[in-house]
């Protein structure tokens, strides 16, 4: 049997290797362009104005979850099913329900953040939200079909447009306001929308009535909101009780520290079809090598990022504070380069109800951690990531044990000792 199986995996292995290399290259482009955009804005815009723009961007991210009814995961899960599990009717229905709700949510958050509603920045934010939501659903559908190229590149495209816009304004000494930055961001989202229709992204959802159940979309919305609270709302939490100058430094440090796990995620996205076929019976120790290699890649990337922020800090108006925050949150995001593999497999294989329950537990732990840190270390909210590092490791190892029957870290260590 061995001589029959040997020649067959080679073409697939080569294709998988090239696909993974392409994903890492695309993520490198995304972060180089993203870092350049952030550094350019941090060097060109006053700290308070940059912090305000950061709040608008965070509002856009959380509103996007509601605008899509958290259905990006459902679109990926059901894209390749037969008969079609996602149709254009799902796109229309999702946006017609989600966009008004998202607009209300954005209004509430901005009011709580003491930012104006109904002015030019708000109008630009709403238009950006509509285009961004369509892009997200369409690219998630392509991911389920195995086409993840533009999904991995779209953030880089947006950052490139932002760099070009901010660079031109800085060159002509134009005083950039928050509305100008948001307008450049809108143009960037429209550019991505134009690229969505290219043949390389696969077929669009077929015509037909909505196939997804509203109950499943409601569950997906709850789960996605909880995950946003866990992964993306730290900036909004910090902005509620810290000065805007600190918010800008926190955003810069957060983006840098998050980069390695985003590299790993971009690679794992290309493995979506294989992850959908993963079961307890075929989840061998060899498949966990990907988690180990991801962690080693993260270690190398963090060394480079630490050097980068050390060199760049003196050049930025908020660089020294950003460097201090980065060093504190780096252990958590380094661990994420390992646990993100578990998170993605579980999100594709676990029921929405179970995902929501675990996400609720994680959110409760994070909020409790903020309360503890705020009481013990006033003015140092980034210390919360020390607690999150320990809790995330315990939770994801436990979830993998309950779903697949083994602790990944134990199997990895046992395999290493055996070799």
Structure description:
The chain is mainly alpha-helical. The protein has one domain. It is built from 17 helices and no strands. The chain has helices at 2-5, 9-44, 47-67, 72-78, 88-112, 120-144, 149-171, 178-196, 214-231, 234-239, 244-269, 272-276, 289-312, 319-349, 352-376, 384-404, 408-418. α3 (47-67) packs antiparallel against α5. It starts with a helix and ends with a helix. InterPro entries: Poly_Biosynth_Transport. Keywords: Cell membrane, Membrane, Transmembrane, Transmembrane helix. This is O-antigen/teichoic acid export membrane protein.
User: Shape, please?
Assistant: globular
Number of domains: 1
- Record field, number of beta strands: 0
Largest sheet: none
Low-confidence blocks of residues: 1-18
What structural class is derived from the secondary structure elements? mainly alpha
User: Into which percentage range does the β-strand content fall?
Assistant: under 5%
Mean pLDDT: 82
Rg is 21 Å
Number of helices: 17
First-residue to last-residue Cα separation: 25 Å
Order of helices and strands: HHHHHHHHHHHHHHHHH
Helix content: over 70%
